[in-house]
Design a protein that fits this description.
The chain is α/β, with parallel strands linked by helices. The protein contains 6 helices and 7 strands. The structure holds NADP nicotinamide-adenine-dinucleotide phosphate (NAP).
Length: 241
C-alpha cells in the first residue's frame, strides 16, 4: 500500500485505556484528529473530569478489577488498535511495602496482560495491533519506585513475549517508553525549576508533551510500522543517552 495516507485512521476503531488525562488524553485526541473512531477509559465517570471528551466514547475502568476488564472487552464488537496508557505510582516508600508493591504490579503489569489477552480475539479478527506505554525506568530504574520500575521493565518484556506469540496471528505488539512529561503522575517532579534543571542535560532541552508521545504511538499503530513488532520506541528527547 502507499504510505502517503498511512496516518489516516478513518474506518479504524481505537481504544486508548487511561486517556482521561495526561499522555493518554493527548494520544486519544491525536487519533480523533487522524479520523479514528476513539474509545477511552478513566477510573471515574465522564462528568468527573474537566477535559473535553467530545467525539470519544468514554468507559469507566478500574484495571485492578479483572471482571471490569472482561466487561469492557465484552462491550466491543471490533477493534483495530489497543493503546494502554494506564499507569500508577506510589510515593513515601509505599512501594517498599508488600501491599503497595502488589498494587502497582497489578495496575501496570498484570492488568496490562489481561487487557491484551481479553482484546486479542478482536485484534486478531482485524489484524490489528497493541501499543503499551512502558517507561524509561525500564532502562534506568527509579530507586524511590521499585514497583513502578519493575512493572515497567516487566511490561517491556511482556510486550516482546506477546509480539513473538501473536506475530503469526497477524497482531503486532509494541511498547513506547516516554521520558519526562508533565502530568498528574509526575506532578511532584515537573515544575518550572525542575524543567530548567532537566533542560541543562537533556539533548532536546525540554520536557516532553503528550503530543510528542502521540506521534510515536500513531507511528507504531499505523501501516508505517507494518514490519515493527516487539519493539520499544524510546521517546525521551535523548534523556537516556
Ligand atoms: N508522564 C511521564 O513522564 C511518563 C513517563 C514514563 C511513562 N509514563 C507512562 O505513561 C502512561 C500515562 O501516564 P501519564 O503521565 O499520562 O499519567 P496520568 O495523567 O496520571 O494518566 C494515567 C491514566 O491511567 C489511569 N489509571 C490510573 N490508575 C488506574 C487504574 N487502577 N485503573 C484504570 N486506569 C487507571 C488514569 O485514570 P484517572 O485519570 O481516572 O486517574 C489516567 O487515565 C502511564 O503508563 C505512565 O506510567 C509516563
Amino acid at each position: 500500500m502507499s504510505l502517503i495516507n498511512a496516518l489516516n485512521f478513518s474506518g479504524k476503531k481505537v481504544l486508548v485505556c487511561g486517556a482521561s488525562d495526561g499522555i493518554g488524553y493527548g494520544v486519544a485526541k491525536a487519533f480523533l484528529e487522524a479520523g479514528a473512531e476513539v474509545a477511552i477509559t478513566g477510573t471515574r465517570t465522564e462528568s468527573d473530569y474537566d477535559n473535553d471528551f467530545s467525539g470519544m466514547q468514554f468507559h469507566s475502568l478500574n484495571i485492578e478489577d479483572p471482571a471490569a476488564i472482561s466487561n469492557l472487552a465484552a462491550q466491543f464488537d471490533r477493534l483495530d488498535v489497543l493503546v494502554n496508557c494506564i499507569g500508577s505510582v506510589l510515593w513515601k516508600k509505599a512501594e517498599f511495602e508488600r501491599e503497595g508493591f502488589e498494587k502497582i504490579l497489578n495496575i501496570n503489569l498484570t492488568g496490562a496482560m489481561q487487557l491484551c489477552t481479553d482484546f486479542f480475539p478482536l485484534l486478531q479478527a482485524s489484524q490489528g495491533n497493541i501499543v503499551n506505554l512502558d517507561s524509561v525506568v525500564s532502562i534506568s530504574p527509579a530507586p524511590a519506585n521499585p514497583a513502578y520500575s519493575a512493572s515497567k521493565a516487566g511490561l517491556k518484556q511482556l510486550t516482546k513475549a506477546l509480539a513473538m506469540k501473536w506475530g503469526r496471528n497477524g497482531v503486532r505488539v509494541n511498547s513506547l517508553a516516554p521520558g519526562m512529561v508533565p502530568t498528574k503522575l509526575t506532578a511532584n517532579q515537573s515544575g518550572a525549576d525542575n524543567e530548567a534543571q532537566f533542560a541543562k542535560t537533556n539533548p532536546v532541552g525540554r520536557f516532553g508533551k503528550p503530543e510528542d508521545i502521540a506521534g510515536g504511538v500513531l507511528f507504531l499503530s499505523s501501516p508505517m510500522a507494518a514490519y515493527v513488532t516487539g519493539h520499544q520506541l524510546v521517546v525521551d528527547g535523548g534523556m537516556t543517552l
